[in-house]
Structures are given as C-alpha cells and as structure tokens.
Amino acid sequence: MKLRSYMLIGLLLSLLLSTVPVSGHLTNAATPPAVAPVSTLSLSQGVKKTVLDNGLTVLTKEIHTAPVVSVQVWYKVGSRNEGKGESGISHQLEHLMFKGTQERPVQFGRLFSALGSQFNAFTSYDETVYFGTVRRDKLEALLTLEADRMKNSLIGTEQLTSEKRVVISELQGYENSPSYRLNRAVMQAAFPNRAYGLPVGGTKADVEKFTVDQVRNYYQRYYSPENATLVITGDFTTEPTIKAVKETFGKVTPRANKNLGIQEPKKAVSAVPAQKTPIVLKEAGSAALLQAVYPLPDLKHPDVPAIDVMDMILTGGRSSRLYQDLVESGLASAVSGSAAELIEPGWYELNATAAPGQELGKIAQVMQQSLVKLQQQPVTTEELNRAKTQLQASFILGNQDITSQANQLGYNQTIAEDYHFVEKYLAAIAKVTPQDVQRVAKTYLNPAKQTIGFFEPSQANGEQADASGGSSRTSENFSPGQPVDPAELAKYLPPATSSTSNSQQALPEQFTLANGLRVLLLRDRSVPTINLSGQIDAGTVFDGNQKAGLANLTANNLMNGTKTQDALTLAETLEDRGASLEFSASREGVNIGAQGLSADLPILIQTLADVTQNATFPADQLELTRQRVLTSLKVQLDDPQSLGRRAFQQVIYPENHPFHSFATIESLNNITRDDVLRFYREHYRPDTTTIALVGDFEPAKVKALLNQSFGKWQAQGKSPQLNLPPVELPATLTRLNKVIPGKAEAVTYLGYNGISRKDPRYYAALVLNQILGGDTLSSRLGTEVRDRQGLTYGIYSGFAAGVNPGPFLIQMQTDPQDAEKAIASTLALLKQLREQGITQAELNTAKRSISNSYPVDLANPSAVASIILDNDVYGLSPQEIQEFPRQIESVTMADVQKVIQELIKPENVVIVTAGSQPTAQKRS
Asked: Where is this region: Disordered (predicted)?
C-alpha cells in the first residue's frame, strides 16, 4: 500500500491537494544498512481509545509541538457499500455534508473558513472522511460543527439539485484524463460484479437519477456514531477534550440499526475473468498508456507486507526493476505501481507511459519478462533491504505533522479495525524474506488473472485544433446575488475557547558561506527527520524562446551522473536510505526538495553538493530525459488546465518577456548537450543558491558539513541578471479559445499581470483575494458560481506574486456549455466588487481566517522549510515568519478599497478557455 497511498484513490473535495512525497532515497549503494522495525516514531504511543455510549469510537493523541489540533471524522462507508443504481452516492453525500444543517442552514465551508480551519474531505472505496486542522482554541467549535452535521445535515431538493451539477462537473473533469478513462475500462473488466470495479465518484447516469429520499436514506443508514471514528491529535488536554466530545457527539443518537441497518458487502472474492487480449481504447489523447491489474487479498491478509516489499522492488524509485527495464531502456517515459489493499480483496496495478515511438505491446512483453524473473529468482539482499527501508522511512516522513498522524490513525482504526496496525505492519515488513517476495510474486502476478489495457491516442503528436481568438465581451448579462453577510454567518459559529497561547515561531539562523551560498537553519526535534527546501536562480526566465525548456532539461538531468557517480549509483545511494532529492525548474528558479531521516543528513548534503557542482550530463541520459520531457509536453498540451494556463500567460506577457516563453517540441529538439553544459556553468552558482533546512540536527555540525561539501564551489564573474520589460494591461477585454478534441470539461482562466511579493499592497491584496476567491466554498466566487448556480466543481482566484510581478488570475472548470455563463457571472462579480466594495464584516472575517490558519502551516516542518526559503528569496525581513499575522491584522478598509480600485480591472481581463467546442446540446 506504500503507506497511506489509499488516499490517492479517493476523490478530494478540494481542487488543491497537498501530499507528502515518499519516493526517492539515501546511503552508500555498496553497503546498504541493516533493516530493523521502525521505533523512532510510534504512532500509537500516547493514543487513548474511548468508546461512547452511542458507539462512537474516539481516538485522542496529545502532541504538544505546535498550538494546533486536527479533528477528523471517519465514516466506514465508501463506494464498496453502494448497490445497483447507487454508484457515486457516497461521494454525492460527501458534497451535501457541506450544504448546512437544520440548526445551521449555511455553507459549512464558510464556517470552517471563518474559524481559520484548513479543511477538506474525501471519499474512497471503504471510507468517507472529513477533516480540519485549526488553532487549538477552535477545537470545541470544530467538534460542535462535526457533531451537528453527523446528525442534522440538510438533504433537500434545493441542495441536491445544485450539488448534482457540481459533482457532474467534477466527474466530467476526470473524463478529460486518458489515464482515468483507461483505468475505468480496465477496472470494470477486472471486477465486473464488484463495486470496486466502478469509479469512486460513480457514473454520471446514476448521479443524475439520485433522489432526495435515496440520498437521505443512505445518510441515515451510514452516518451514525457506531459507524464512525473520531480522531483528535494535537495540542490539547485529554480529559476536558473527552468531556467536550461527550457533550457534542455524545448527544447524537445511534440510528443505523434502528433504520435500514448497515449493509456490509459480501467478502467473497469474485472470480476475475482471464483477459486474453488487451482492452484497447483508441481515443483523442497524447501519450500511449498501459495499465495491468492483478487481484490481491484484503488488507489484513498475512501476505500484505511481502506484497508491498515486492511492489517497492518493482517500482520504488529509479533503482527499481521496472524503472531500469522500461524507463532506462527508453521504452517508457514513466512507470509506477500501487497495491490497493482494502477491507475487501483489492488489486495490484502497474502503469506505464510509452516513450515516443514505442509500442505498448513491446512494453507489456518486457514488463512480463521482469515479473517472470522476479517469480523465478529470489531478490538480492541489497534490493530487499532497500525496499524495506523505503517503506519504513516513508512512514516517518509521511507522519511529520499532526494532520497526517490523525489520518493514519483514522485509517488504521477504520480499515484495519486496529489503531496499532501500522506498527504491526512495519514489524512484519522487517521480517520479509527473499523467499516471501518470490512466493507472493508467483501467487499474485499470475498472467491468467491479469487484466491489461492499452490507451492508443488518436492524435499521435498531441496536436490541438486551431484556436480562435479576438476581443469580445461575453454575450450574457448577469446580475449576481448579494454577497453573504459574515455578520449573519457569525450567529451560526460555535464559540471558541479562550486562547492562552503565547508561543512564537522560532526564527531560523541565517548565514552566508564564503562563496555566497545562503543558508537558513531551523532546528526542530519533534520528529527525527530532515526537510530541505532550496532554490538556485536558474529558472525558465533565462531560457529564451529559441531554447525554451533549457532550464527544465538541465534540472531534470542533474541526477543523471557526476564525475564520480553514475545515475544508478546516485539513485541507490539515496534509495538505500529511504530519502529523496529532487530538482524542478520553475519560472524564477530551480526548486530543490529533499527529505530524509535525520541520521542521513550528511549523505543528503553530500549528494546535493555533488550534483550541483559536478554533474556531467551524459549524452545517452540526456536523450532519454529529452524523450520523457517531450512526452510530458504532449500530455500538457492535451490537458485543458495546462494548455489554458500556457495560452493565458502568453496573451498577458509580450514575446520579449521571459514569462511568455514555454517549451515546444521544436525548441526542445533544438537544445544540444553544449547548451545544457553552458547553462549549467553560467547559472548554477553558489551566490545564486539558497538552502533552508528544518529538522532534527546539530547546527554546528551542519555548518561544518556545509562548508566541507560546498566550500570549493566558486562562482565565476557576475551572476546573470534579468531586466524584465514593463507589462501593460490589455486595452480591452480579450478572449481566446483553445480547442482540444474529446474533452468533457473546459477550463477557463481570467486575469492579467499583477504584483510582486514585495509590493506594499500585497497583504491587502491577500485579504481581498480571500473574500473574492481564496476558497471555493467560502468566497464570493464560490458562493455564486459554484454554490448557487452549480456551474463549476471549483473556482479560485489568486495573486501569483513572486520576486517579479506574476499574474492575478481566476481559474474555473465547467461544462463547455456552461463556460459562457460562468464567465459572465465572474465578470459581474468583479464589477460588483469595483462598484460596491466590501463590508467591514467581510474584512474582519477574511483577516481572522488568514491569521488563524497560519499556525497550521507552521505545524508542518516541510511547510516551514518552504516558508522560510520563500521569505528569503523574496527579499523579505528575517522576522517575516513571525510578523505575517500582524501584517494581515493591520490591513484596513482603506487599504482594501485602494487595492480594489488599482488591481481589479474587469474591463481589461484576458479570458482563455481550453477544452472542446460547445455543442448544440445543453446539459440539463
């Protein structure tokens, strides 16, 4: 299961999902470390389990590392519980749980946002989960809200009608993805008689037919305390918290057994029909895809640890067998594996994306040869230890913050029925032998039980139809409703307890090496991990149109070899330790991201120093990377979101502006190895590099290590400089449509050039944006376009403010038929904002929401590393990490009104819509 990878199977309510990376890893490849059960982070230690009289299971764990708490409610119901004609009803109900209750008939997203909660929800095969993380003084308020909607959710005609449209928009958005469509076909063939064979979100046909009684009965059946687990982690005291739980959730009467009864599907494994020939989808798309599925036992089966070790050996990083056999050979541009071990018997899936010009049949043949080899020969000790270490390290790295720990506890109790499950699982991982791996490979990777599918794109080069453009106004005349009054909303908010928190975020130690490399160190001993964020000023702004993609190609090749280590040795050095080191080029810099256990900091720093100073860019690896980048580009050009953003930015910025430049197939093929070497020599310099480290380390030892590793790195001459030309707003409203055949949903961007992070108007702009579109469930845009009209699954606005001014933009996903109405609604809201401004209550609520949620960000060591890095790169004060909430609180009504007049220009917006052409048929 790659520990908590089940989360990726679920459908997320929010369009923005944060995940903890658990891929790459560390140590000397020649001497892999011995593997023992992980004992440095005991998830269940300190957990108290309480079962209320009404059957609710409560797990509490005090973690006093930050003044925040996480509250999660796990309902043991998912798509596996759905009967005929109910496909997607669990997910539909998840949406309706935000529409209000009898006592609080308001959008719950607004209530959570007003509390400063970072909240979300997801539906998966076996569970539906609601979670929020807040400042500790908001704990009882969250308990009150979650208990209220467990008992009193509004499920009426009005709520269901509007939210059906939202869910259908979400489902149609998934239809844009060829991999989603292939997965759906393969799963239906593999499990024709099981709910697991259908997408978690259901089918459009079933969703359209849901009735109020049907959904309400489902709610009554499954949303009952004896079918739920409440998890609370963070900075609280157990006894008064249990008392508060009894006063809120304890009043919820169990009802499942009194009504329709909780219906558990049969545990029997359906026979999977042998798939003699591949399922073939020939549809509009870009890259060719392969997916193979094999049946597995349920989560509690004793073979599960060995299966997961097998998966790591096959697909766990660059040193894995299938990566070496398929990607390093040039057959595939990507390969991945995932074991879905659930309440009922699940499946193992393998996915591959073909490299340009490669046949899926050949990829399937080589993949099968790799599996046969695994079945016939025991794995090596080195492979076995590496896989075990990766799995165990991923557990620690994936549970650094209280939200993740609550998530893991909820999963353990709900799916495995034991909150101690992970410790037992990791102990079993340590005992897996080569013979165990060989045995499970023989047992479960049986060709007779394989279901395999091919996606063969009908547009081989990822080409789109011609775009139409021009300057025009939308044809619809739209009058938005009145904004939601936060003062009216406030009467539904439970009171917060008095906050006694005087804790203040520690400041990082900052220093500069003799060669100019900037370092920020922040010690955090709460978890035995290291989180590194870094930036090198070598981003795509330095590309130029003729060599667009050069910065990205250079960054992607850094790990392909140095003067002393080849690509495989570098990968094994990291993966033997369960650590990761990755580089990616963004507009203004190359981002460095690294994680590992604290004991592995030396090898992580040494590897980083080696590749930044001594990369050799072997010609064969450069060509393989180029092919992978070309495949990725074709996928982006086939994705309305990626293509729309590219087109939007190219309209905003003139051709002589670096933000206009995007890689093309031609520009990528024009880049030579000499170009890459030149770019590396010119732009990878210590005096344009900044590293932020947060974790469990001794600062003095880290300083010595950094000086030893980077001390000989010297810059030559002056660093490259950019003089960005000024960007004027379009004289009139500008429209552009980018047509991609075969897409069910359109993505629209509206906006223009905005401000930089150091602009004195930034904080007022942030407050304004929170009101306008900072959250799709609580903002003006979300209230009107999503909630009231049901035109979109998600709509957001934001200021992409960096070192240089970036765009102000609004993004939404709609049915192509609804795009025009959604655009007109959005423009009308912008005009309303210009003409009427905001209210004092909106201002106060937005400021509280931003400042109250900030401590949640600071409770995650990985997020803190990114925050202190960004603050330094943007040239902000070292105290910014402490001062940010006060900066928000100091924003006045006059500040926001000034920003509205200066930065909100509905008559000058650029509007880009990417997706299929609207047809004559409108969706009802």
From this structure: 455-506
